[in-house]
């Protein structure tokens, strides 16, 4: 009996405990549902719903004359939600009725798979009920427009399951043109370069938000739950498309023809400091040239004789000399504290300072600087400081370096040889833009302008911020010093003994400037097998009487370069650039007919095409060739002469010369040989990156510059 009671007591106790536990569970459930329900529901949603940013449309970069230099175009990633209610209703009737026609259209549009392959993949994804199936990445806007009209897709998102994820792709419509200056826009904005980096905060706009649902291992957008982004602003540059094009073209032509590793050319508007063009070209491993580094702004080098303007201005301003003062060049060779300085042309004796500048005598300027500044080097350095050659240029672009290196007399590296060597452009590192600012200041009657690249920031077609010319030094020296310096700069070109006379004198307008030929180490890697490497420079402005533009050209030569003197290499480029600018912007109508630019007077093309054109225009022509498909046309006294261009009709595996041809003919000829042509500009081909007559491999790229 006692045992029975003991068992019953235990049973009752367990039963009571079960009832209490049940009440506790129910109470806890009630508490969680009512008191903590909001918190746990939001926690559950956060695991499946999430706000993700929507990138704003990046602003565009324009030239001053209204052309787009960099812009964004939309690209689309295409996904399909095979769990969409409208797609699966009635046992997937809508999907089954449209899958054949949809597969056919996709196959025709993308040309990457057969219709049967598309159908098989779509049916498998439908069977597996995939919620975020990737159909295609990075399709263009034109493809997107066609896709929206396809069977099933045109029924809308709920019935088709199609999801379009839009992104922007940055492009440069002119490809090579000022590419390094305009810069690159990357996903990580800290790695941007050029204007894309400097004005990134304005260009990128403000991101929006979009609610995304996590399903099947990926986030899908929740329709209607978006916060629109604020698009970026546009940047209007000072660049002129025409001037940039001819600057890039003429620099390219010299680099290719002279086997030069890299070079830069900068065009500045004299009165304002606006950069109208800046070209930076470097040779690539495949032999082509590209805008790889900003040599004009970001690379400081020993400038050579173009630095003599600094010494000239200093001596004149301190009234130690006039341009008529005599200096003995001592035959063009002299030792300074055990180191020899010599002129490129030996034998010069006593001459005026003006002639010494025109002839670019290293000895003359080393002697004068030593005579007047050896005992007071700080006075010479103060002039350099006043000319801002030891400071950053202030240009509105982020460059990788560009910081000048100018020794101070108080530095431990200052030597007795520093003054004579610095006087003619050594033991000092400056960028081409630094010296261009100084030459432009002389052209601008002593007023030094800050170089700048951006005119305005524009939003919805309205300028919200504008940039004006800025004077950084109101007067670099006296009017008398400027007057004498201008005479010397003019003599470099006008004097029969001037280093620039043979290259730059035969113009309808006057040019003033200075050449420079510096001995350098190739790419800072030391001398190649003991051979000298030369950097060719020319700085100048035009027209001399009323300067409108200043130009700097600096080209690094190689051991294979045939020409290396500053005027012969860089001066030639400057002359061709200034010819184009003068002809296009500054010349009077009566001047234009006097130009004899061969690139405008000869043409290449197919025989039948040229004959048809001349017949249609009633132009008399004479064909001196009897065979061949191609002809070269030239004009003399309004009569067209056709002859057989051997370099075009040749069948051997050589690069053809397509300069002077229209783009259609050039592409036909090159692509039939297996070359891949990359095109920049419009009109006729005026330059090609691969040298005519050399061997090539099929699939090799060739860059064509059009005028």
Q: Main traits of this protein?
A:
alpha+beta, Penicillin-binding protein 2a (Domain 2), Trypsin Inhibitor V, Chain A, 3 domains, 6-stranded antiparallel beta sheet, extended
Low-confidence stretches: 590-600
Largest sheet: 7 strands, mixed
Q: Give the CATH class of the largest domain.
A: Alpha Beta
Query: What is the CATH topology descriptor of the largest domain?
Result: Beta-lactamase
Q: Whole-number average pLDDT?
A: 83
Number of strands: 31
Number of domains: 3
Q: How much strand?
A: 15-25%
Helix content: 25-40%
Q: Which term fits the overall shape?
A: extended
CATH architecture of the largest domain: 3-Layer(aba) Sandwich
N/C terminus separation: 118 Å
Number of helices: 24
Task: Decide which structural class fits the backbone.
Answer: alpha+beta
CATH homologous superfamily heading of the largest domain: DD-peptidase/beta-lactamase superfamily
Rg value: 36 Å
Give a verbal description of the structure:
It is a single chain. The chain is 36% helix and 25% strand. The protein is of the alpha+beta class. It folds into three domains: 54-237, Penicillin-binding protein 2a (Domain 2), CATH 3.90.1310; 241-592, 3-Layer(aba) Sandwich (Beta-lactamase); 598-706, Trypsin Inhibitor V, Chain A (2-Layer Sandwich), CATH 3.30.10.20.
